[in-house]
Amino acid sequence: MAVREIRLYGDPVLRTVCETVVEITPVIEELIADLLETTQLPGRAGVAAPQIGVNLRAFSYHVNGELGYLINPRIVELIGEPSEIDEGCLSVPELWEKTPRYPGAVAEGINLNGETVRIEGTGLLAQALQHECDHLDGKVYLDRLNPDARRGAMKKLRETSWF
């Protein structure tokens, strides 16, 4: 197990649609362990595999004291009407933008035993499920912004200390 370095916006892995995990192997077990350990650092609600440079469909989350993960996740239900809420991303440090997200979400995937897992969340957990699944599809939260907000965010991005 290891805390892995977070890839930053501009890294091509963040724009790549991730591959499906086809078999649970020791490599996948190690990936999940690393995701969980990386997510447990303070201020982190979730980490997707591409954020640590791995092009596979898996993420971990740590919300309200609950630590977990999903392999091959997909959003199966979005609940309520989307509203704009503050959102940031470890791969886009220093920026927080009002991002449209649904207040409830249900995701399904599998665990390391190959069993189907269903996670239902509201609030921050719903936001994390949507955010991490976006990463697995090669998207970052900036892609969800309306055109004017995105232009403003991209201007701020160019002014950050790391970009």
| Major beta sheet summary | 5 strands, antiparallel
Which word captures the global form? globular
End-to-end CA span: 29 Å
Look at the helices and sheets and give the structural class: alpha+beta
- The radius of gyration over CA amounts to 15 Å
Strand order of the largest sheet: 1-2-3-6-7
The number of E-state strands comes to: 7
Low-pLDDT segments = none
* Relative helix content: 10-25%
Helix count from the secondary structure assignment: 3
Order of helices and strands: HEEEEEEEHH
Q: How large is the share of residues in beta strands?
A: 25-35%
Q: What's the overall average pLDDT, rounded? A: 97
Q: What key phrases describe this protein's structure?
A:
alpha+beta; single chain; globular; 163 residues; 3 helices; 7 strands; two-stranded antiparallel ribbon
Question: Secondary-structure map with pairings?
Answer:
Blueprint lengths: L25 H14 L6 E3 L9 E6 L2 E14 L3 E7 L2 E10 L2 E7 L5 E7 L1 H13 L10 H12 L5
Antiparallel strand pairs: 1-2, 2-3, 3-6, 4-5, 6-7
Q: How would you describe this structure to a colleague?
A:
This protein is α+β, with helices and mostly antiparallel strands and 163 residues long. It is 24% helix and 33% strand. It has helices at residues 26-39, 124-136, 147-158; strands at residues 46-48, 58-63, 66-79, 83-89, 92-101, 104-110, 116-122. The chain has a 5-stranded antiparallel beta sheet. It has a two-stranded antiparallel ribbon with strand order 4-5. Strand 2 and strand 3 form a beta hairpin. It is globular and about 45 Å long. The model has no long low-confidence stretch (mean pLDDT 97).
